[in-house]
Structures are given as structure tokens and as C-alpha cells.
Amino acid sequence: MYAASGVGLAAPQVGVRKRVIVVDVGENPIALVNPTIATTEGEQVGLEGCLSVPDLVGEVRRAEWVVVNGCNLQGQPITVEGEGGPAGPRIAARGRSSGRRPIRRSPHRPHAPVERERVECSGRERGRPHLTREQQSDMATDFDRFVDELQQQIIEQARAVYSDKVVEAFYHPRNLGRMPEPDACGVVHGWCGDTMEIYLRLNGERIEQASFMTDGCGPTVACGSKLTTMVCGMSLEEAGGTRPEDLLDALGGLPEESVHCAELAVNTLLEAIASRSQVEGQ
Predict the structure, then answer these.
(1) Are residue 193 and residue 261 in the same domain, yes or no?
(2) What CATH number should be reported for the domain holding residue 49?
(3) Do 13 and 149 have their domain in common?
(4) pTM value?
């Protein structure tokens, strides 16, 4: 989240199917378990991106003011109010954590008998309780511990299902990103809903550089990373002979339900090679 200059992250975005969000608008990071939107008010339009889909930014309508109920890391009920900029991230994170679109209800401000914390994008502490340095330090320690435990849980769950090669390629993908002015490119929309893009830079008939972009799951990212690494240095003819089985062997295998990710990556490579042939034929 911090590496991408993000302000919010939901657990499902990092492979954990739990209703947990983390938000940091430049003050103290806030973690909410089982977040629920209680109230929204007003409307604003601003540019937003998503950590799950890098480089995709667009105008989104969000509430100007939002109240979210949930629990903190100690299991205590807490209500967080967001105004201005923070309102958008909170709604976006809540919608993703539940798998449903954000809910907008009629403006209403109920009094909840729980701890209430108000957060504003401007940083002004209007109506916000003062935190001592010791409290801030304790909160930061709890947050760091929560992130460490969450990351460890993600890795352990991944290693129980996937090979070490797949896990490494997913968490540290190579050649990820769109290539400016490629010599060949292919885009394929898989039946699973994932999209793969592969870009090639050529030196004659040999692949000098390859990169990929995808909005898919972890295995899809791993397949894109491994495949683009494999074909670098190959001729177009050699790369065109690559089979999904070759990619699966290089990754140490995939579960049956993820084999289609290798097929998607290879089909996209073939599409990129075909686009080169079409250009030459014109």
C-alpha cells in the first residue's frame, strides 16, 4: 500500500478472505475488522486508482462524508468518520472487503454508543481525541504486528497450495508492466475473467525483451512473470512452440483449477507473435 502511495487496503486484495481494511491518510493508520458503512452524506468526484489494477486511474463519484462502524485490532467497537479525501478510500475499501458495491443511504447521523474517531484529509483535529506519544507508539506497534501477522498468514496459505516457484513469481514478479512502443503485443481475455497482455521488443527475429500486464489472480501473475522470462533470448519461432505444459513444468506445477492461467499466458504470447506476423504481411 505504501509502496504504491495508496491510502487504503482490504485483506482480499492481498489474498486473505477476511473482512479487514487498513486506511492511512497521513496521520495514524487505522485498521477495521468487519467494517460496515453506517451513514454517507454529500457527493464528490475525484481521480482514483486501485492497488489491484496498477496504472488504471479514473474519475469516481464518492460520498463527501461517511461513517464506518467496525472493531479495532483489540476487538473493541469503533466508529470512524471520514470527510473529504478519506471518505472515498473508506467507501472503496469497504466495498472491496465485502465483495459488494458501496452502499449509499439517506443522510443521517445516528448516535452510536461506541468509541468515535474523526479523520479529515486536511489533518485538522476537529473533534478528534488527542493521542499521547505513548498511545501513538502503541498504535503503531499494534499496526506493525497486525501487518506482519497478516503477511505471514498469506505466505503460509500460499505455500500450502502452490510451489515455491509460483509463490516467488507472484510476490516478486519479473517483467511486470506495459512496454512503451513494443514491436509486438498481444491481449487475451480469458474465460475466467482475467486479462493478460504481453509485449515483445525484438532484435531481428529474436526476442530481446518481454513484459506483461494482467488484472488476474496470483497464479496468472506468476505465469506472466515466468513466461516472459523464459522467452527472452528465444527466436519468434522457438517462442511460438511454447506449450502450457512447458510453463507449468517451469513453475513446478499448478493446482488443477489454476491450469487455465498457464493457458491464458501462452495464448497471449502466441497472439503477440501473430501480431508481429500481421504487421510484416501488410
Answers:
(1) yes
(2) 3.90.45.10
(3) yes
(4) 0.52
Residues 268, 239 share a domain: yes
CATH code for the domain in which residue 209 is found = 3.90.1010.10
CA distances to 17, 40, 277 from 233, rounded to whole Å, are 39, 55, 18
The pLDDT tens digits along the chain (282 residues) read: 677 667 788 887 776 777 888 888 766 788 888 888 878 888 888 777 666 655 566 777 778 888 888 888 777 777 887 776 544 443 333 333 443 333 232 223 333 333 444 444 443 333 444 556 676 566 566 667 777 777 777 778 888 889 999 999 988 899 999 999 999 999 999 988 889 999 999 999 999 999 999 988 889 999 999 999 999 999 999 999 999 999 999 999 999 999 999 999 999 999 999 998 665 554
Angle at 161 (CA atoms; ends 159, 54), nearest 5 degrees: 75
